Each structure stands twice: as structure tokens, then as C-alpha cells.
Automatic annotation (TrEMBL):
<protein>
    <recommendedName>
        <fullName>Histidinol-phosphate aminotransferase</fullName>
        <ecNumber>2.6.1.9</ecNumber>
    </recommendedName>
</protein>
<dbReference type="InterPro" id="IPR001917">
    <property type="entry name" value="Aminotrans_II_pyridoxalP_BS"/>
</dbReference>
<dbReference type="InterPro" id="IPR005861">
    <property type="entry name" value="HisP_aminotrans"/>
</dbReference>
<feature type="modified residue" description="N6-(pyridoxal phosphate)lysine">
    <location>
        <position position="211"/>
    </location>
</feature>
<comment type="similarity">
    <text>Belongs to the class-II pyridoxal-phosphate-dependent aminotransferase family. Histidinol-phosphate aminotransferase subfamily.</text>
</comment>
<keyword id="KW-0808">Transferase</keyword>
<dbReference type="GO" id="GO:0000105">
    <property type="term" value="P:L-histidine biosynthetic process"/>
</dbReference>
<dbReference type="InterPro" id="IPR004839">
    <property type="entry name" value="Aminotransferase_I/II_large"/>
</dbReference>
<keyword id="KW-0663">Pyridoxal phosphate</keyword>
<comment type="subunit">
    <text>Homodimer.</text>
</comment>
<dbReference type="InterPro" id="IPR015422">
    <property type="entry name" value="PyrdxlP-dep_Trfase_small"/>
</dbReference>
<dbReference type="InterPro" id="IPR015424">
    <property type="entry name" value="PyrdxlP-dep_Trfase"/>
</dbReference>
<dbReference type="InterPro" id="IPR050106">
    <property type="entry name" value="HistidinolP_aminotransfase"/>
</dbReference>
<keyword id="KW-0028">Amino-acid biosynthesis</keyword>
<dbReference type="Pfam" id="PF00155">
    <property type="entry name" value="Aminotran_1_2"/>
</dbReference>
<dbReference type="GO" id="GO:0004400">
    <property type="term" value="F:histidinol-phosphate transaminase activity"/>
</dbReference>
<dbReference type="GO" id="GO:0030170">
    <property type="term" value="F:pyridoxal phosphate binding"/>
</dbReference>
Length: 348
């Protein structure tokens, strides 16, 4: 006897990267957080929150934040849905469109594991289409899987590769369901797929303030799509999914694109250095367009190295799954943090 639905009994819960207790000193390179503080303007907005506004429910549509997105990214203000992190938008999307085997969830592998977890809860069947070694988008196979929604993370985690715009456009043209392009790492990349939302009625682009804007603790993300696509999502969205504090702080951060871009530029410079330092230690490193690198140690003993690093106070991400068990995903930290990592690896 179980208290739960069969789908819940059958599924595995999502396992997030470790979050050490505050006060414990670690070099945290395991969950792709930004090593720099949020924008000073966001910090000022936090300090100036009027406690009286906390007495009231927040704006269900976070209009002020939508306006900041609209003006910063050059899209109409009614083309935005705001979520409690982009994970919330992913959840809303799957709940709105996916169900069983007729309305399945499709994505290439390896990618963000949460797509699988959210589909399992629904439950909706998933079709996981492997990327080849070259990480070319398997367009024909993805289309043939006929998803109610197809997820493409670009730049992708954990590989760090970015999907060419022409491939995303071709996929958007051919799929019958929704194409969700997860741009959690776009701030560290050279281009965005955002223009596709204007070209295709079935495309939604997902963004987050967790990575580029250094606000993972705030929980704020958003989706950009035409109002017709958003209308179904708004029915599923929790009325008060974004709180008053997140709206105020997130709005200030969104309006400070210069600060975000300056931090991203520092991260990209550090990414180049970390990549070459790892290569000098004979690690294989995939070219990354995110704030992390996926690397294979020369002896393939990734799990052992992950554990040794952890013992010495450096957290990186190890995925014990097919195709990834000989690799480590390392978040790009400050140059000092990256150097500490390299110094330790060179002693092994
Ligand atoms: C970090 C990440 C997210 C989640 O971002 P939140 O806004 O913090 O929920 C979504 N997709 C991918 C691929 C990510 O790496």
C-alpha cells in the first residue's frame, strides 16, 4: 500500500548539487552560480523595500519586472511569463501541455535532468534522443518523436555546447508541438535564439536570473513567447508564484544590463584560462558557452577526483550516469578559486 500515485512511486526525485551550510568555507564550483555579487542596484533595491508592501499579496503578473524585461530585451511587454526560477516556468509548461504517451516530452541527451523529473510527475512519457559525439542537433529524430513539447537547452548543460540558430530554426519549423529553448546560460554565449519567438508561434525562450545576474537565491526566471502561447500557461501558473522581494530586486537587476554583461565578460575570460589550464594537465575539455566546463581527467577517474576535491573543500559536479561518469562539470569561479582548483588537481 502506498499513499502516492503510481507515477510518484515509480519516479526518482531530482537530486540538486550539494549546498553546504552557510559558515562552512568551501570553493563552490558545483551548481553554476555566479562568483560575483548581484548588481549594486539590485542590492540597493533590496535594502529599500518598504515593509508595508510585504503585508499585501504580490502582483500576480509581476508587471514591473515584465516591463524591465521588455525594455532590456526589446520584446513586447505582454510576451513575458514570470516564474519562481525558470524551473517554475518549465514546470508550468509541462503541466500545461504534456500527458501520457500521446503528449510526450522530448529532448536530446545529455541535458538538464529536471525535464525528466517534471515529466515523470505528470506523468508524461519522455523520448530521450542521444546527441552524437559531435553534439549536432539530431533534428530528424527529435521531430519524429512528436513531442507535445521539445526542450533544447542552448547553451546546454552539462556539455556547454551551443546549438546553431539555423538548427533551432529548422526544428521550430518542423515540430508540431511547442519548442522550448532553455537559455539559462545565454549571458555567457555569443548569441541568443530570442528572434525565433517572433518568427514562430510555437517557440518559447526560457531565461533565468540565477546564473548571469548572480541571483540564484532570489528564485526568478521567465519565459518569452507570443500571448497566444502564454495564455494556456497563465491558467496553470500559481497566482502568487513570484514574491514582492523578487519583483523589486529582479527588476533592478534586469535594468542593469551593463553590470551583468561586465560580470559575464569576467567569467568568459576566466573560462578561457581554466580551459587552457585543464588542458595543460592533460584533461580533455569541451568548448563551453556557459559558465562551466565539462572535462574528462586523463585517467577517466572522475568520481575519485570529485571525492578528493570534496575532501579538500572544493565542490564540483559529478554525474553518475551513462556518458558522463568519466567527466566532471566545473563551474567557472573567480580566477583565485579556479587557481586553487588547478593547484589541487596538479598534485594528483
Ligand atoms: C540552472 C538551470 C535552470 C534553472 O534555473 P532557475 O531559474 O534557478 O530555476 C534551468 N535550465 C538549465 C539548463 C539550468 O542549468
Amino acid at each position: 500500500m502506498s499513499y502516492f500515485r503510481p507515477a510518484i512511486d515509480a519516479m526518482t526525485g531530482y537530486v540538486p548539487g550539494e549546498q553546504p551550510k552557510s559558515g562552512i568555507k568551501v570553493i563552490k564550483l558545483n551548481t553554476n552560480e555566479n562568483p560575483y555579487l548581484p548588481s549594486p542596484k539590485a542590492i540597493a533595491a533590496l535594502a529599500s523595500i518598504d515593509p508595508d508592501t510585504l503585508r499585501r499579496y504580490p502582483d500576480p503578473f509581476a508587471y514591473e519586472f515584465c516591463l524591465a524585461v521588455s525594455e532590456s530585451l526589446g520584446i513586447p511587454k505582454d510576451w513575458v511569463i514570470v516564474g519562481n526560477g525558470s524551473d517554475d516556468v518549465l514546470n508550468i509548461l509541462i503541466r500545461a501541455v504534456a500527458e501520457g504517451s500521446d503528449r510526450q516530452v522530448v529532448y536530446p541527451m545529455p541535458t538538464y535532468v529536471l525535464y525528466r523529473t517534471l515529466a515523470a510527475m505528470q506523468p508524461a512519457q519522455v523520448a530521450e534522443i542521444p546527441y552524437g559525439d559531435d553534439f549536432r542537433l539530431p533534428i530528424a529524430e527529435l521531430v519524429a518523436a512528436n513531442g507535445a513539447v521539445t526542450f533544447i537547452a542552448s547553451p546546454n548543460s552539462p556539455s556547454g555546447h551551443i546549438v546553431p540558430l539555423a538548427d533551432l530554426r529548422e526544428l521550430a519549423r518542423q515540430v508540431t508541438g511547442i519548442l522550448a529553448i532553455d537559455e539559462a546560460y545565454v549571458d555567457f554565449a555569443e548569441y541568443s535564439a530570442l528572434p525565433l519567438v517572433q518568427e514562430f508561434e510555437n517557440v518559447i525562450v526560457l531565461r533565468t536570473l540565477s546564473k548571469g545576474y548572480s541571483l540564484a537565491g532570489l528564485r526568478l526566471g521567465f519565459g518569452i513567447a507570443n500571448p497566444k502561447l502564454l495564455s494556456g500557461l497563465f491558467k496553470v501558473k500559481d497566482s502568487y508564484n513570484i514574491d514582492t522581494v523578487a519583483i523589486a530586486v529582479g527588476t533592478a537587476a534586469m535594468r542593469d544590463q551593463d553590470y551583468k554583461n561586465a560580470c559575464a565578460a569576467k567569467v568568459k575570460t576566466s573560462r578561457t584560462k581554466l580551459t587552457s589550464d585543464l588542458k595543460n594537465l592533460d584533461y580533455t575539455v569541451l568548448e563551453s558557452h556557459g559558465n562551466f566546463v565539462l572535462t574528462t581527467p586523463p585517467k577517466g577517474n572522475a568520481e575519485e577526483i570529485y571525492l578528493k576535491l570534496k575532501e579538500s573543500g572544493i565542490l564540483v559536479r559529478y554525474f553518475n550516469q551513462a556518458g558522463l561518469s568519466d567527466k566532471l562539470r566545473i563551474t567557472v569561479g573567480t580566477d583565485e578559486q579556479n587557481q586553487a582548483l588547478i593547484d589541487f588537481l596538479s598534485t594528483l
